[in-house]
Amino acid sequence: MALLLGVDTGGTYTDAALILDDQVIASAKSLTTRQDLAIGVGGAVRAVLNEAGVEAADVSMAALSTTLATNALVEGQGGRVALIYIGFAAEDLERHGLAAALKGDPALIMAGGHSHAGTEANPLDRDALLDFLDAEAAGVSGFAVASLFATRNPAHEQAVARIIADRTGAPVTCSHELSSKLNGPKRAVTAVLNARLIGMIDRLINRAADTLATLGVEAPMMVVRGDGALMSAEQARERPIETILSGPAASIVGARWMTGAENALVSDIGGTTTDVALIRDGLPQIDPAGAEVGGFRTMVEAVSMRTTGLGGDSQVHMNASGLLGGVTLGPRRVLPVSLVAHEAPEIVHAALDAQLRSVAPGEYDGRFIRAVVGMPAVGLPERDAGLLARIGTGIKPLGDVLKTRLEQSSLKRLIERGLVQVAGVTPSDASHVLGRVAAWDRDAAEKALHLFARRRVGTGNPLAEGADEMAQMIVDQLTEQTALALLETTFAEEAEYFPLPAPDLARHVLTQRGFAGHNGILSLKAGITVDVIGLGASAASYYPAVGARVNAQVVLPTHGAVANAIGAVVGQISQRRSGTVTSPSEGKYRVHLEEGPQDFDESTAALQCLEDRLTRDACEGAEQAGAADINLHVARNIRTAEVEAREVFVEAVLTVTASGRPRAAHG
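Given the sequence above, the corresponding structure tokens read:
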């Protein structure tokens, strides 16, 4: 039988698992190393091969899942990009969060685009494009191109992409390559996010592939898509946006494989996010509206999942409202103080001790900063570049680096670009203090929590009486926010029965009293009726309390800590292609193809032409990804209208899916 190697690169840990004869024979973890992802990948793979006692050359397939793209969007990180927006009006930049997705990055709105029928609406303004490239190209890492009705005729997107490639050599993402659906602004959002992620995912895949080759793994490497299917590494490089929710999708596939659950809530807690999804009738649900991550609704097909910025490494914030105060967690991830102290004990303990000797709490107590070595820093404003140079390469107390409040905005931009990492108090530190985890430096965590506990609430009293009380407050808040994430998912899945938004229902006083089992004149009782499958390295520490909070049975699989790595190699390769046939006039049927529209006199001929083309492209994609024994599924959605007592063709959307197991997986 085939020996399968699964690897998952998360924000905190890189996991590896080996599967032989449908059994997990070994698993391992290594810290993810942002400065060089190969170190973390290599550490996890070496450990799992040694544990199993097998040779790297025996591996017949390797697959990679990752939460890096998801985490980057949740935390607002990624490269600086430029958008070429063809044929749209300036106000369209505000639709579907496009301006928010750009985050101040440059955009050119230029003449061009096509009509709904695929005919040219206006000539392409090439001079405006060339002037824009001369002014902006040096300061961006990639380009996104979106043209009006490009899914009806992509000619202008293709022309612009060629010009950009010739003039700059930078990677270009065309919106029509990511989705065949209409809605230009939403396609543009998807293209912008894809362009922003290209550098990050390309570095990950290159370093992972190089590491596996160095270790002697000769098998092809696959990458998990956001819908749980596999694609080739080359396909992932071109379409990194499809890896958003890759790690969470792999965890659902892994949870189903490990437990055999037919109906369950899967909740995967990582370092940065908690991802909750429903398995119904043995299958993960696919979001028909497109994946939503970090507040952005994309056109990427992915598992229907609620991703919350809540994890073991979530930043802890003091809640200053009210007299008693409290804490909230996330959505940004920070490095745990216990981790940076493990890596640089002298620097971290010296700073913490000095801060503890101070009579008054300091604004930056218990917080540290370091640069991420090797990240491209193109297009930085002078103030940001100066701050990055001052940070240098080692770990430093944050208060020693920030000289003025004006530099806080520069720090925020450097974090969003992924150029620096900040360390601070996290639930992981709280778990070290409470003795639930012993991976890093407990003493440093205790000092940092003492510093956090000294902060004053509205009454003038300290937030907590010491590190232990502070740690329990943080863990209790993680339990509460996790419970809310589960409730939001359950209410969203049963939205037809409830008229209010899921977040409001999850926090409603009747909901809360129901889960607390109120029993007065009125009796209220609520609970989640399906099992909650808890995944992630810290699930065993937190999820028993979460289950009690929502009155649900919690299942903690034996290998739940590496569910993503397991799910990476038990899925199928799947390639999906969609296309459209329209009727621009009576008796004419137009097929919208990559090379432009093609007209037919008969609808059956048009539909067959499109089906043949989609079948060819889907099969080629599946074969390039390494699939064998390919199965085809064709879905036709034909819209008609009744006009003068006869049925008239309006539009047809065809989708062809080619799927199969990886060739190497047959052993």
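The chain has a mean pLDDT of 89. Try to locate this feature in the token string yourself.
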